[in-house]
Design goal:
With 685 residues, the protein is α/β, with parallel strands linked by helices. The protein folds into three domains: 8-247, Response regulator (Rossmann fold); 261-420, Alpha-Beta Plaits; 453-466 and 489-683, EAL domain (TIM Barrel, Alpha-Beta Barrel). The chain contains 27 helices and 26 strands. The strands form five sheets. The chain has an eight-stranded mixed beta barrel, surrounded by four helices. α13 runs antiparallel to α14. The longest helix is centred in the middle third of the chain and has 22 residues, at 422-443. The termini are far apart. The structure holds ligand C2E and calcium ion (2 copies). Ligand C2E binds at residues 452, 468-469, 480-482, 485, 494, 498, 501, 525-527, 587-588, 611, 644-647, 665-666, 671.
C-alpha cells in the first residue's frame, strides 16, 4: 500500500482489540495514530491536536460516534477533518445517520482491510487536493480582515465572516447591495470622488476612512481596494480588504490619556485638564484664593466639518488652539477638552474685570476669518465663565456651572461670553463700555485739569496748587477721578493720561507766570505705572524743557506704595528727579506702609497727611496723636508738612497749634477750573 503522505489518525473505538488492530495497520503504512475509547475523549483531544482524519466507531459508551462526529463538525477549527465512520454490517440506518451528521465516508465491521486501505488512500488524496484548491477559500473565511468582492459598480458579490463581524451585516443582508451601504457621511463628496478616480485609473487605493456599521456606530477602517480586470482590460471586480482600527485608535487614545495630551493640537486633553483643575482647586481652597475657568465652544464648527470634511475641521481646530494660545500669552493654562471645546484655567489673582477682558480678546481672536483650503470661514465662539469658590468648590460643580454659563452664552446669540453670575455680566458690560469711552476720551481731549489751592498756614499766602484731573464726559457732565482712575490703572491707560496731565499742568503754569502771575508750586499726581516707565525721568525733563517751566515750580505727588517699590530703581529715579530740581511729596501719608527707613533715604520735600486723619483731628484723640507724630517726624527730617481735606476752622486751629506748615481743602477752595483759579488769585491780590 502506498499512501500519499504520512498523516495523523485519531482512532476511536471502545473495543481495545479492534482499536489496536486499526492503529497497527495505519502505523505499518507509515502514519501516526492516537487511540481513544469513546467520543468524549476524542473531542477533548481535539483541543490539543488536529488529526488529518478520524476513524470513528459508531457504537460506543459515554458518547457514541454519531454524537462525537456531530460535535466535531460544529467546531470551526475541526469541521474540515474527514470522519470515517465504522458501522455494523448491513446497518443501513446507521449509514444514513452517519452521512446526515456530516461523516465523510463509512466502512463496515468486521473490517475488510483492503477496503479500508482504499478508503483511507482515497480520502487522503482528496485532502491533499483539497489543501494548495481551498486554501484561498480558507483564508477568505478565516482571516481577521473583512473582505468584500464587488462588481465593477461596487455591488457586493460576496463577503467573508470577518466582514460580518466588523460591519454587523450578514451575507444575506450585504450581498446584492452597494458598498456605499457602509458610508459614514463623515467624508466630503470630494473624498469619494478622489477614491474612485484613483481606483479606476490606477486600479489600487489604500487609506483610512470612516464607515458606518449596521448598528449605526461609526468606526475607522484601513482599506486596501484592488481592481480585478477582465481579459478585455475592463474592470470586472473590486476586492476590498479592510481592518477595523477602532481598537488601535482606542489604544492610541489610551496612550494619549496617559500622556495627557491631545494629538491634534498638542494641548492638554480633558483628562489632564481635570487633573490640573482638581489640583489647582485644592490649592486654592487652602490658600483661600480664586480660580477662574473659561469654557470656549466654537459657534459654527459643525458647518465647517460637514461641508469641508474632517481633515479641514482638524486644520481649523489646530489654528483655533494656536490663536487662543497666542491670546493667552502665558496667562492661565489652555486645554482642548475634545471636539471644538477648549478650556482655560486662571488661578490666583485674576479679578472679574480682567477675566472679562481676556474672554473678549479670545472672542476677537476667533472673529478673524479662518482661511481653509483658500476658503474664508467665519467661525466665532461662545464662552462660559465661572469662578471657584463662588460657583463651585469642587471641579464637578464648578464645571457644571461653567457649562451652564456657556449654554447661556449660546442662547444669547453666540459670539459672546457669559459669567455664571449675572451681576458679573452686568458689571463686565458696564466696565467694558467705560474702557472704550476712556480710550476715546484721550483721543478727543475730554480730560481737563482742575486746580486746588494750597495755603501757608503762618502767612495765609498761596503756597501752590494741586492739579486734579476731571473728565468732561459727553452726556455725563464732569466726572470725578474716583470713577475712572481705577479703570485707567487696570488697563494701563493711566500712563498716557498721566503724561498728558503732567504736560498740561506745566504748559498752563508757564502761561500764568509768563502773564505776570507770581509763581507758585504746581503739584501733579503720579500713578505707580507711570513712575515705573523706564524713561519717566527723561519724560519729566522733556516736559519741563518744552514748556519752559523752571523745575522748582513742579511738584510730583507719589504715594507711599510707589516710593516703597523696587528700592534701588526707585532711589535712582527719585535722586535724578531731585537733581533735576523737581520737588517730591508723599501723598496720602499714613495710609500705606509708612517706613522711616525710606523717608530718611529718599530725597523727599513734603509729606501730605491723608485727609482721613485730618477729618477728625479736632475730636478724635487717636487721629490727633497720629498727626502730631507725623508733624514731629517730618520736621525732624527737615520735611514740609501739608494737611489735606481741611474743611473746618477747628481743624485749621489744631493744625496750626501743632506746627503744620500748609493746608489744602474745601475751607480755602475746591478744585476749580483754570479761569476760576485765576479769579481766586486776583481776589487775594
Ligand atoms: P488725592 O491726590 O488724594 O487728591 C485729593 C482729593 O481730595 C481730590 O479728589 C480733592 O478734590 C479732594 N479734596 C480736596 N479737599 C477736600 C476737602 O476739604 N474735603 C473733601 N472731602 N475732599 C477734598 P479728586 O479730585 O476727586 O481726586 C481723587 C484722586 O484721584 C486723587 O486723590 C488722586 O489720587 C487721583 N487723581 C486725580 N488727578 C490725578 C492725576 O492727574 N493723575 C493721577 N495719577 N491721579 C489723579
Ligand atoms: Ca494728590
Ligand atoms: Ca491725597
Amino acid at each position: 500500500m502506498e499512501l500519499a503522505r504520512k498523516a495523523l489518525f485519531f482512532v476511536v473505538d471502545d473495543d481495545p482489540v479492534t482499536r489496536l488492530m486499526l492503529c497497527r495497520f495505519l502505523e505499518r503504512n507509515g502514519h501516526v495514530t492516537r487511540g481513544f475509547a469513546n467520543g468524549a475523549l476524542v473531542l477533548d483531544a481535539l483541543e490539543r491536536e488536529k488529526p488529518d482524519m478520524v476513524l470513528m466507531d459508531a457504537k460506543m459508551p459515554v458518547m457514541d460516534g454519531f454524537e462525537a462526529c456531530r460535535q466535531l463538525k460544529t467546531r470551526v477549527d475541526a469541521q474540515h477533518v474527514p470522519v470515517l465512520m465504522i458501522t455494523g454490517l448491513n446497518d443501513d440506518e446507521s449509514v444514513d445517520r452517519a452521512f446526515e451528521i456530516g461523516a465523510t465516508d463509512f466502512i463496515t465491521k468486521p473490517i475488510h482491510w483492503a477496503i479500508l486501505r482504499n478508503r483511507v488512500h482515497y480520502l487522503l488524496a482528496n485532502i491533499e487536493a483539497g489543501h494548495r484548491l481551498s486554501l484561498a477559500a480558507r483564508v477568505f473565511d478565516n482571516t481577521g480582515e473583512g473582505i468584500a468582492v464587488t462588481d465593477a459598480n461596487g455591488r457586493i458579490l460576496s463577503i467573508n465572516p470577518a466582514f460580518t463581524r466588523i460591519t454587523g451585516y450578514a451575507a444575506h443582508e450585504a450581498v446584492g447591495r452597494n458598498m456605499n451601504l457602509l458610508k459614514s457621511g463623515r467624508h466630503a463628496l470630494e473624498f469619494y470622488e478622489r477614491l474612485w478616480d484613483e481606483l479606476t485609473t490606477g486600479g489600487q487605493w489604500q487609506g483610512e476612512f470612516y464607515n458606518r456599521r449596521k448598528d449605526g456606530s461609526i468606526y475607522p477602517q484601513w482599506s486596501s481596494i484592488s481592481a480585478v480586470y477582465a481579459p478585455g482590460g475592463q474592470i470586472e471586480n473590486f476586492i476590498t480588504v479592510f481592518s477595523d482600527l477602532t481598537a488601535l485608535r482606542e489604544s492610541e487614545q489610551n496612550l494619549l490619556y496617559v500622556t495627557g495630551h491631545d494629538a491634534l493640537t498638542g494641548l492638554p486633553n480633558r483628562h489632564l485638564f481635570h487633573e490640573r483643575l482638581t489640583f489647582v482647586l485644592n490649592e486654592a481652597s487652602v490658600a483661600g484664593t480664586m480660580v477662574w475657568v473659561l469654557l470656549l465652544d466654537l459657534d459654527r464648527f459643525k458647518v465647517v466639518n460637514e461641508t469641508m470634511g474632517h481633515d479641514v475641521g482638524d486644520v481649523l481646530i489646530v489654528e483655533v488652539g494656536r490663536r487662543l494660545d497666542a491670546t493667552l500669552g502665558g496667562r492661565g493654562s489652555l486645554s482642548r477638552l475634545g471636539g471644538d471645546e477648549f478650556a482655560v484655567i486662571l488661578p490666583k489673582t485674576e479679578d472679574a474685570q480682567s477675566v472679562a477682558q481676556l474672554a473678549d480678546a479670545m472672542l476677537q481672536a476667533m472673529r478673524v476669518p479662518f482661511i481653509l483650503h483658500d476658503v474664508e470661514f467665519f467661525v466665532g465662539a461662545s464662552i462660559g465663565i465661572g469662578v471657584h469658590p463662588l460657583d463651585g468648590e469642587d471641579a464637578k460643580t464648578l464645571m457644571k456651572n461653567v457649562d451652564a454659563a456657556l449654554y447661556h452664552a449660546k442662547e444669547r446669540g453666540r459670539n459672546n461670553f457669559q459669567f455664571f453670575r449675572n451681576e458679573m455680566n452686568a458689571r463686565a458690560l458696564a466696565r467694558m463700555r467705560m474702557e472704550t469711552s476712556l480710550r476715546l476720551a484721550l483721543e478727543r481731549e475730554e480730560f481737563e485739569l482742575f486746580f486746588q489751592p494750597q495755603i501757608h498756614l503762618a502767612t495765609g499766602d498761596l503756597a501752590g496748587v494741586e492739579a486734579l484731573m476731571r473728565w468732561r464726559r459727553p452726556g455725563h457732565g464732569m466726572v470725578a477721578p474716583g470713577e475712572f482712575i481705577p479703570l485707567a490703572e487696570e488697563t494701563g491707560l493711566i500712563i498716557a493720561m498721566g503724561n498728558w496731565a503732567l504736560n498740561d499742568a506745566c504748559q498752563r503754569a508757564m502761561r500764568w507766570f509768563a502773564a505776570g502771575v507770581t509763581p507758585f508750586r504746581v503739584a501733579v499726581n503720579l500713578s505707580g505705572l507711570q513712575f515705573e516707565q523706564p524713561d519717566f525721568v527723561q519724560r519729566v525733563t522733556e516736559v519741563l524743557a518744552a514748556s519752559g517751566l523752571e523745575p522748582q515750580w513742579l511738584e510730583l505727588e507719589l504715594t507711599e506704595s510707589i516710593a516703597m517699590g523696587d528700592a534701588v530703581e526707585t532711589l535712582i529715579k527719585l535722586k535724578s528727579l531731585s537733581e533735576v530740581g523737581v520737588r517730591l511729596s508723599i501723598d496720602d501719608f499714613g495710609t500705606g506702609f509708612s517706613s522711616l527707613k525710606y523717608l530718611k533715604r529718599f530725597p523727599i520735600d513734603t509729606l501730605k497727611i491723608d485727609q482721613s486723619f485730618v477729618r477728625n483731628c479736632a475730636k478724635d484723640l487717636e487721629d490727633a496723636v497720629i498727626i502730631r507724630a507725623v508733624i514731629g517726624l517730618a520736621h525732624s527730617l527737615g520735611l514740609t508738612v501739608i494737611a489735606e481735606g481741611v474743611e473746618l476752622r477747628e481743624q485749621i486751629d489744631f493744625l496750626e497749634v501743632h506746627g503744620c506748615n500748609e493746608v489744602q481743602g474745601y475751607f480755602y477752595g475746591r478744585p476749580m477750573p483754570e479761569e476760576a483759579l485765576l479769579e481766586f488769585l486776583r481776589k487775594r491780590g
